[in-house]
Design goal:
The structure is a single chain. It is built from 12 helices and 9 strands. The chain is globular, with a radius of gyration of 19 Å. Helix 1 links the parallel strand 1 and strand 2. It is α/β, with parallel strands linked by helices and about 325 residues long. Strands 1, 2, 3, 4, 5, 6, 7, 8 and 9 form a 9-stranded mixed sheet that branches.
Length: about 325
């Protein structure tokens, strides 16, 4: 007799994640024990004891061991064949859901069948709000955001605090993304043209193109210690560089290479202005100087390119369907 199918299949891609995994696993175990959820962990050839921690702390989890680091998209895609739930939750090891947070997120999507994917509101370890409502790459919007005086726009690719609708976004981060099975089947899996960063932008674009909306459940808050594994693996400077490279790669795939290049140039000019005009020694100036150095490397073609220098391969999204441009 087969066990009842879970409502949600949780996938965690682990790489150098041993410090964060225990808290994450402890938070989701009640959902596993209640058979509401199943857990599929992909060990992305991690050099630490991530796989051992999973086997010890969550013996009910299905542990898939990759012989190489496939990146975030590749790791998640490896798990898809094992997904049984009507919802698929991508969960970073550095994310801790609150009690019944996964169930609440499922209920949020159940009440909104027009939404194909949703994220909880992500908060930092001190309770600060993380940017969760995101907008697609745009030359004009990026220029406005990068030169604005609004706080919180530094430290990574630009975003909007809100989209046109309060609970709707153009895209949401893959750190805690709940996707409807039908949305995956219609839009395809994540593109492995990305190694890490940018894949969630391009995937949400295809999910919207398939006829679904993208949402943020603001009342449901998951704690996210962003960048822990990445910083340990690469260091902070390279972490930021890879985030920016993924952002521009997503722009090229969704809006075309010319738009991607224009976006890079406009961002570089805005950051140069910030680096010289912001108060000397301020957090804003230091962030602008760091990001300006990254952008100058990307302009010269020597920074981390998401499809070549990082992934070491060029692929297009599943089904061989290169995305058409956004208008």
């Amino acid at each position: 007799m087969h066990a009842a199918e879970p409502v949600v299949s949780i996938t965690i891609v682990a790489y150098n994640s041993g410090e964060q995994l225990p808290d994450c696993l402890s938070a989701i175990r009640p959902a596993l024990r209640a058979s509401f959820a199943e857990l599929i962990v992909v060990d992305n050839a991690s050099p630490d004891d991530s796989a051992t921690i999973v086997a010890r702390q969550c013996p009910e989890a299905l542990l898939l061991r990759s012989t190489s680091n496939r990146g975030f998209a590749g790791g998640c895609n490896l798990a898809w064949a094992k997904v049984r739930g009507r919802y698929w939750l991508l969960l970073n090891p550095d994310v801790v859901p609150p009690p019944d947070g996964i169930g609440q997120l499922v209920e949020w999507l159940d009440r909104r069948p027009e939404f194909g994917a949703a994220s909880p509101q992500l908060i930092g370890t001190s309770g600060e709000l993380h940017a969760t409502h995101r907008r697609f790459p745009s030359v004009w919007r990026t220029a406005v955001e990068l030169v604005s005086l609004a706080p919180g726009l530094r430290g990574g690719p630009p975003h909007d605090a809100r989209a046109a609708h309060e609970c709707e976004a153009d895209w949401i981060p893959g750190a805690a993304m709940l996707i409807r099975r039908e949305a995956v089947e219609r839009a395809g899996l994540m593109s492995e043209a990305f190694f890490m960063y940018g894949e969630d932008v391009e995937w949400c674009w295809r999910i919207r193109r398939a006829g679904f909306r993208i949402g943020v459940a603001e009342a449901i808050r998951f704690r996210h210690a962003a960048g822990g594994s990445a910083i340990r693996t690469w260091g902070e400077r390279q972490w930021y560089e890879r985030m920016w490279a993924g952002w521009y790669h997503a722009c090229r795939l969704t809006r075309g290479r010319l738009h991607g290049r224009a976006l890079l140039v406009v961002s570089t000019l805005a950051l140069a202005a910030d680096a010289f005009l912001a108060p000397r020694g301020s957090v804003r100036q230091r962030a602008a100087q760091r990001d300006l150095a990254i952008h100058l490397r990307l302009l010269r073609g020597v920074g981390h390119d998401a499809e070549a220098a990082v992934a070491g391969r060029q692929q297009h999204p599943p089904r061989g369907d290169r995305p058409a441009r956004l208008h």
